[in-house]
Amino acid sequence: MNLLTPDPGLVFWMTISFGIVVFILAKFGFPVIVKMVEERKAYIEDSLVMAEKARTELETVKEEAARIIAQANHEQVRILHETSLAQEQMLNDARAKAREEAEKIIVHARKQIVAEKDESLREMRRMIAGMSLEIVKKVLRTELNTSEKHAEMIHKLIDESAKRQS
Fold this sequence. Notes:
Layout: H1 8-143, H2 147-165
């Protein structure tokens, strides 16, 4: 039964070996492990702080983006409104200009119509006067076909002319 009962010398040397290992680990291993655990803990805490900071910055950026989008939408509405007003103004100006131009054209056309009408009337008067003279010539030729009638007409015209002058 020697296998189950430890020998006191073996226990002694095992205790000494275990103590040396614990001492070495306590002196050199644990501080390094604790230091690494502390560094890791600090790294994780820094990462958490940075993540929280990034989250708050992201919220700030989201709010800023929402504000910028709202401002851009407002600006877009303003620009569209201004564009609409400018378009209306341009259309009104164009209509007014077209009315003025149409009025000028109408006035010019009326003047031209009056001038053409006057010219036509003058031409018609000339034609009527010419025709009247031709008719008078023909009537006088038929009326004054004899020398007695011719002389009578001359005397009558002289008398009328004399009465006018006196």
